[in-house]
Amino acid sequence: MEPLVSIITPMFNSETYLSETVNSVLNQTYTNWELLLIDDGSTDKTLEIAQILTSEYSNIILFKNEKNLGAALSRNKGILEAKGYFIAFLDADDLWKPEKLEKQISFMTNERCNVCFSSYELINENGQPLHKTVKALPVLTYQKLLKSNYIGNLTGIYNAEVLGKITTPNLRKRQDWLLWMEAIKKSGKPAKSLSEPLAYYRVRENSMSSNKWNLLKYNYWVYKKGLEFSTAKSFYHLIQFLIEHFFVKSKQIVSTKSS
Questions:
Q1: Residue 39 region, left (φ>0) first, then alpha (ψ -120 to 50), else beta?
Q2: Which residues is 30 bridged to in the sheet?
Q3: Helix, strand, coil proportions of the chain in percent (round to 5)?
Q4: Which of 68, 123, 137, 166 is the most exposed place for a label (fewest CB within 10 A)?
Q5: Is the dihedral of CA 247, 100, 177, 138 positive or negative?
Q6: 3-state secondary structure of 128
Q7: Residues 6 or more apart from 199 whose CB is under 8 A from it?
């Protein structure tokens, strides 16, 4: 029997995209999964939509925070409630391709790898293709990941049976980066990827990735608060991040639009 995969989806005012996101899970060719929806105090119709979905599908489970706690604590709630052999992540506005889970779980089993990720494509707020693909590195070490976040969270999966449940520090942003660093460290060997894009990341106007100054600020807190580096060491790694981001990581984004 296929091992169970737990999919963690935190939600906050996600009524516009939630149904489409969940449908991308329902359409998976890999069928042994549970989807844990964690509502983080939404004030729109997110909770209503989620309740309808849970009434229709027994493997979709809803949890509700009494107040807004943020993405980190919401993900942690899902992780702690997860029953799966593998744990995967999908935010409430992103999408998976139908063979995403099947291909990654097969790859992880065959390669005996504990942390896996893939390339992914970019779409705009309306779901239209931006004709750009973020190419995954074939192999990713802890030291390489320390320089910049090379794992798109919507593509990442880790083996919870081997590594245990890995939760995220309570930072406002970039907590997923810390989770993947901890997963690779616990694994004792590099993460591996599939070069094929298996998901769609929705680039939103107010997203942190569109605000370079916020990106810089939150990266500093990853080093300072998340990894508890000294101020000097945090600034050193922030400079390393800038070098990596602009001279190496930027080359990962490949245009797929034909001329």
A1: beta
A2: none
A3: 40, 25, 35
A4: 68
A5: negative
A6: coil
A7: 90, 94, 95, 96, 97, 100, 118, 120, 121, 152, 154, 155
Q: How far is CA 8 from the centre of its chain?
A: 9
146 is a domain residue: yes
What does the block give as tokens for 238? 């922030």
3-class secondary structure, 36: strand
Query: Left (φ > 0), alpha (ψ -120 to 50) or beta: where does 174 sit?
Result: left
Q: In this predicted model, what pLDDT tens digit does every residue of 150-195 receive, in sequence order?
A: 999 999 999 999 999 999 888 888 899 999 999 999 999 999 999 9
Task: Give the integer Cα–Cα distance in Å for 144 and 149.
Answer: 9
Does 233 fall in a domain? no
Task: Answer yes or no: is 244 within a domain.
Answer: no
Q: What is the pLDDT of residue 259?
A: 44
Q: 192 φ, ψ to 5°?
A: -125, 155
For 32-76, the DSSP string reads: -EEEEEEE-S-SSSHHHHHHHHHHH-TTEEEEE-SS---HHHHHH
pLDDT at position 172: 81
Residue 35 lies in a domain: yes
pLDDT in tens, 26-79: 999 999 999 999 999 999 999 999 999 999 999 999 999 999 999 999 999 999
Per the structure, the count of domains in the chain is 1
- Which residues are registered as beta bridge partners of 255? 132
Q: What is the CATH number of the domain that holds 19?
A: 3.90.550.10
Written as one letter, the residue type at 159 is: N
* Domain that includes residue 14, residue range: 5-206
